[in-house]
UniProtKB/TrEMBL annotation:
Family: Belongs to the PEP-utilizing enzyme family.
PEP-utilising enzyme C-terminal domain residues: 519-868
Source species of the chain: Parasporobacterium paucivorans DSM 15970
Record-annotated PEP-utilising enzyme mobile domain positions: 421-502
Protein name: Pyruvate, phosphate dikinase
Molecular function via GO: ATP binding; kinase activity; metal ion binding; pyruvate, phosphate dikinase activity
UniProt KW keywords: ATP-binding, Kinase, Magnesium, Metal-binding, Nucleotide-binding, Pyruvate, Transferase
Amino acid sequence: MAKWVYLFKEGNADMKNLLGGKGANLAEMTNLGLPIPQGFTVTTEACTDYYDKGKQISDEIKGQIFDALKVLEEQQGKEFGNVDDPLLVSVRSGARASMPGMMDTILNLGLNDESVEGFAKKTGNARFAYDSYRRFIQMFSDVVMEVSKSKFEKVLEGIKEAKGVHDDTDLDADDLKDVIVKFKDLYKKELGTDFPQNPVDQLMEAVKAVFRSWDNPRAIVYRRMNDIPGNWGTAVSVQAMVFGNMGNTSGTGVAFTRNPSTGEKGIFGEYLINAQGEDVVAGIRTPQPITQLEKDLPECFAEFMKIANKLEEHYKDMQDMEFTIQEGRLFFLQTRNGKRTAHAAIHIACDLVDEGKIDEKTAVLRIDAKALDQLLHPTFDTEALKAGKVLGSALPASPGAAAGRVYFTAEDAKNHNDAGERVILVRKETSPEDIEGMSAAEGILTVRGGMTSHAAVVARGMGTACVSGCGEIKIDEADKYFELGGEVIKEGDYISLDGSTGDIYLGDIQTTEASISGNFHRLMDWADKYRKLKVRTNADTPSDAENAIKLGAEGIGLCRTEHMFFEPERIPKIRRMILSKTVEDREEALNELIPYQKGDFKAIYEVMEGHPVTIRFLDPPLHEFLPTEEEDIIALAEDMGITPEEVKETCESLHEFNPMMGHRGCRLAVTYPEIAKMQTRAVMEAAIEVNAEKGLNIVPEIMIPLVGERKELKFVKDIVVETAETVKQEKGSDIKYMIGTMIEIPRAALLADEIAAEAEFFSFGTNDLTQMTFGFSRDDAGKFLDAYYKNKIYESDPFARLDQSGVGQLVQIAVERGRKGRPEIKLGICGEHGGDPSSVEFCHQVGLDYVSCSPFRVPIARLAAAQAAIKQADAKK
Ligand code: ADP
Ligand code: MG
Ligand code: MG
């Protein structure tokens, strides 16, 4: 027979998968001999079984729950459901990883109309007994039956008002009896049945509610954001009650062994006298700092400190503890490794190393790589934020806090920024033409587009805060205003954005600059010591590249060349190139572009000081460069000596039904070899010149995008080689160069051995590879992904977290076959996934040489790569 239920004394801290974090730690603390109210834990497997059985708790599980309850009754010397002296329990949820959004705890379960009288008599404290019962009714109704807590609070408020008192503690036994009658009426009115009187029913309903809460919408969203699989399930702990609401020598509180926001050493916490459970965090009464306990109940405080230190010593990490004092007796109800800010996490990890409690590797494993984002971007001043009004919320597309005046076009944003204003660019969605306005902005807000929309990708690259996909906004770009959260925001008005949470605020909220401490560098040095993967960056401009180098990038894995063409002097030339009718005209236009492109490459090579730079040749469909505004069309027509109608006609002829799968990537070079020639010349001349000027030894890496066939790559490669050799001869240079390709079409992955015969390196373009493998475009995925999450078809966004089973398999195949075709082939990844920790771990496992990600994600990738290497080494032991 399977074991579904464990007494606390049967478990330990290593059983988190089975008992959940809370249950495992309650067991561990029991074994340490700490004062823990006893109880038992129903396993996460029982939760999974509940779902497997069509949301039924099997008789076997029920039986084991009752057996454990028997043992608990014996331990406590009380009977569950006894009317004179009832055993009361709490029912608590706990998954492997602590998960806000899961079910709230139910306290005082086991009381009913009859036993509350016995309980009053037995404890000699009627006020306390009725207070416990009214709390139970409220919690059970809210948590199990989903009748909103606020309805009960309103009743309670009414009674307090009628009596003219402010605090719950000012209500006496008779008042509370009255509360109970009114609560039960409310229950019946809302649900049509009486409040359940049978304690066994109460218990089983509560257990089921915990299981159900695993799948509530809040929990599902939290899991998706934190990479928690849906099949883990939650455990349920049932524990004998202790009471903090028995009078002035009782109380309840929470405390951390170190400060969770700064990381500073020293006890940090709060407690409330004569209170139960969540009163401390509910904000009904103002709690006392934990140090006050030393004055109120010195012996309790001394014992509390002793246990707190013991727990930190035992777990070798900062602890977050919950405790209750019942008539001067201290009980611990929970301990766990405390959540902390990234800043505190690093501070604590370094301190623990210095205190000799953990080693460097453990310190590296302790930091949540994703959270490093917090350190690299401005945040809002906490006090100022409290006063801010939230207008709405959307996707947290690029982290950081930003405040400024609203402008609706890239041009306005740039001009006002040039004039010294802080600006926020608000657009329906952004396009490559908006680049300058985006880089001028403190923050970007879009109405449409997901986490991998143009705005999101570019903003992350620049380290600019971005909130995307705010569908609630009603925007009028022509008249320059938008409506959100009941406010009308006009051009020039201040708003503030939190790109880490997605919140949008009214007004100019003060921000605090990012600051990287010495501890950060210490931790990063440790990470660099253990990682095997190299970390490069995706950078298109010298300033992006410079940023990335500061954050530890070891090269550029993806330098896109298309963004270089959007500047005002350049775009007319590329448009002329596109509209040219003859090769000669096209070459002429391209020749005019060479100096610009060469200048860009030189500037990037200079910043990179000899680190490798992979330059990708032109990739997007040409129509992205074409004019849409009437005045641009007229200007272009004049420039080319043709009529505006002719321009429009040609533009229309370039229309594509599905640009993502259209005339783009290496197909451009196959149809217009002149483009590849021009780009090759620019790359080679830039490298030769910088090598001479700076005494460097740059080996240009030229990357041909969107290849699906060996001959296709060979065709473009021949053009590149021919041009490169010509340039070498012209300049009398013997510079080396490499030619490689992106793997972003499934066919290329499957035929990687053939393709490797022509390619010296592969870079996995996992954005396109994901689109092509799933068969949907990332720009349209936002329209249906939510329904996929809701119906549990997908657990996470495949554009944010690499789909290891599908897309990952293609990567693996390409790695194996690529190495077969060319054993020394260099392998990297340059999709957005290169900065996602779980995807970085995958890259480590399949044996890539490097990951490349946006500059501000470089530290995340360095840390994630180290964690992957340490975990793999540990697993081998
Ligand atoms: P959460 O996971 O939200 O922290 P908990 O299960 O820890 O929920 O319960 C919240 C609070 O309820 C605890 O901090 C504690 O104050 C109170 N509580 C839970 N179980 C008991 C118990 N057996 N006796 C007394 N108080 C309890
Ligand atoms: Mg808790
Ligand atoms: Mg691509």
